Amino acid sequence: MTHYKYLIIGAGMTADAAVKGIRELDPNGSIALLGNESNPPYDRPLLTKGLWKGKPLDSIWRKTEEHKADLLLGRKVLSIDPQKKQVQDDHQESYTYQKLLLATGGTPHKLPFGGDNIIYFRTLEDYRRLRGMCGQNQHFGVIGGGFIGSEIAAALTMNGERVTMLFPEEGIGARVYPRELSLYLNGFFCTKGVELLPGTNVKSLKKSNNSNLLITDQDHQVPVDCVIAGIGILPNVELAQSAGLKTGNGIVVDEMLRTNEPEIYAAGDVAEFNQLVLGKRLRVEHEDNDNEMGKQAGRNMAGADEPYHHLSYFYSDLFELGYEAVGELDPRMETFADWEEPFKKGVIYYLANGRVRGVLLWNVWDTVPAARLLIAEPGPFIAADLKKRLP
Q1: DSSP 8-state code for residue 139
Q2: Following DSSP, what letter does each residue of 363-388 receive, concatenated?
Q3: Could you report the per-residue pLDDT of 8-29, keeping only the tens digit for each?
Q4: Of 25, 78, 106, 189, which is most buried by a Cβ count within 10 Å?
């Protein structure tokens, strides 16, 4: 049985950030990462963004090993015993710890059909599999019109591939963007050569000769060679639940990122925390939160005891369009679009109860700090107050 001062379950971006947070305060305490994947920590967003625009594969690595951490990869943790401070993995090895961090991330939602014939795009191996199919005159079917679906459809199309998108909503990103922007994106993607089937649910996948047939809820058959699905993730809370940790929409943590077991912390995609500025508990699945929350968890494990109040941002690239966004983006809220050039450059504000709850910076850059300050203001605001409020 091996003892570590800091044991981290998970080997993704959050785990890497935690290692670096620990090392800011404790340069020598022993650290180990237990990860399901065989790869060391890497920057996941590059799988749908930069790698398709020419960035080298080596640019994804986060170089965790340079911070004196043991990387125990290709392992699944089977159990946690909080009383004994002990963890067991599927290699029949056990570890004890002083502090434990759960950075277990999430698992893609899966459709009730298709099996391994569908790529649920999330990992480096998914990227390698998909990239290996490119350049062979194939037709790619992308299920889902959210972040992953829209980004991978754009990436494939920019690389000369034929793409059909199928999603149940009226427009691309309909759960995030105001309706007029979502519908604009439909037309924009079509001009780039993407075939769109909005308002479509896929109900089954059938093999036909050497291709796949996607069967829609209208009984249409869409022949494709490869199917990719981006339909969200579920937080990996089963291990926490079996250890008696409190869960809700993720593993519940306090402002110090501790669970109901004071020596066990959680961070990243899997953690449900109190967002002070927004005044609500939530779970966030974006890179900035992974990095900042992971770092804070690491610092707190090493004794910092600093509350996590960071309001994270997220971003996306869609062909030549791009954006950064802060806070809650829910099109059911009141929205105000302050366009410099309609649908090409501008700021969209999301308001509730007289306060700005979210800001979408559409092809507007270097404005995230100002957007955070605006969301923190008590208001009250009306739409007219926001004209030219942010550059």
Answers
A1: E
A2: T--S-HHHHHHHHHS-----GGGGTT
A3: 999 999 999 999 999 999 999 9
A4: 189
